[in-house]
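Quick one: structure tokens for this chain, please?
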Amino acid sequence: MHGMSDEDQAAVVAYLGTLGEKMNIRAGRYVNAELGSAIYHERGCVACHAPTADFHGPQGSGEGFDDALAVALPDLQKKTSLAALEHFLKEPSKYRPDGRMPHLPLAGQEALDVAAHLLDFQSSEPREAADLKPWPEESAEVIARGQALVTQKNCAACHDLPGIEAQ
């Protein structure tokens, strides 16, 4: 949504919030962000994403990695919750069927640990994590404007959006 006004971004978000099913998700019983860091750096995440600041591999730090080639991670603390990121990491294609993120087999607790690492979660108690903010309630007019913007910007060229055809 680069280059869009805050008002237009809010309209697009309002429209996107009307798509898909609503889920009630909860995180597991405990989390280990340090283990999550090790998994992130050893399982293939850094094949696409840059090493995180805490990375000290066999050659020292993550210096020398070409960040320009890495898929940027958004400000996850503003965008998601511990439980939501855990569920996304377990099945990325369920949440983003048109996305490029491959399924990485994360067993048991591993997805939650990676999520804790990416969110810089300091506790071992997931129930202390913030929940997702409630989806903003918007008027039908704002939602319609968001849908019009999604159509105008040809978002369906890259994203699977019900009822919107690529131009």
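The chain has a mean pLDDT of 79.
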